[in-house]
Design a protein that fits this description.
Radius of gyration: 25 Å
CATH superfamily of the largest domain: Ribosomal protein L9, C-terminal domain
Oligomer: single chain
Number of strands: 9
CATH architecture of the largest domain: Roll
Strand content: 15-25%
Order of helices and strands: EEHEHEEHEEEEHH
Distance between the termini: 67 Å
Shape: elongated
């Protein structure tokens, strides 16, 4: 099914492109979200006007984005997260957490510009690409370090993980006893 894009769609095309997509993708996502319309002559004129307006706005924003890219380029950010002894995080770090860490450094960047292939789940140093536009990119370095909470817990009680596992076993046994029907009737 051919559709005319009204907005830039990542990995599909830019405003004004006539693209061929599967009918379900067009019906269920592109058309209801207003990202694309049917390719008629009237719609083509509308989209061309939108494309010109978008290009004008893009030219204005380009300078701002280039300034942000030079400000961010090579910046090192430290994020603390809870982790186990092997360095695996109990959660993960995604674009929202990176956006918050940058905001703490008085650098305000929207999370949609942060290009992570997969969430960070390990303690280490990561190079993260920030892609403002296909032409304007910057790389930041993120250090993921264990939080003070996980360090203190390990220092105070190194057998805490073993005790937690034993507590889980006792809880399971107690719930099984409670789940059995009683003969008091």
């Amino acid at each position: 099914m051919k559709v005319l894009l009204r907005q830039n769609v990542k990995k599909l095309g830019i405003i004004g492109d006539l693209v061929d997509v599967k009918p379900g993708y067009a019906r269920n996502y592109l058309l209801p979200q207003g990202l694309a319309i049917a390719p008629t002559a009237a719609n083509l004129k509308i989209v061309e006007a939108e494309r010109q307006r978008h290009l004008e706005e893009l030219a204005k924003m380009r300078e701002e984005l280039e300034a942000k890219a030079t400000l961010v380029k090579g910046k090192e950010i430290t994020i603390s997260a809870r982790a186990n002894a092997e360095g695996h995080l109990y959660g993960s770090i995604g674009p929202a957490q990176i956006e918050a860490a940058l905001a703490n450094e008085n650098i305000f960047i929207d999370a949609k510009y942060i290009d992570l292939d997969h969430p960070i789940r390990q303690l280490d140093k990561y190079d993260v690409q920030i892609q403002f536009t296909p032409e304007i990119t910057a790389t930041i370095h993120i250090w993921v370090l264990p939080s003070q909470d996980s360090d203190k817990a390990r220092a105070l009680d190194p057998d805490a993980e073993d005790a937690t596992e034993a507590g889980d076993d006792q809880t399971e046994e107690a719930s099984t006893v409670e789940d059995q029907p009683s003969d008091d009737v």
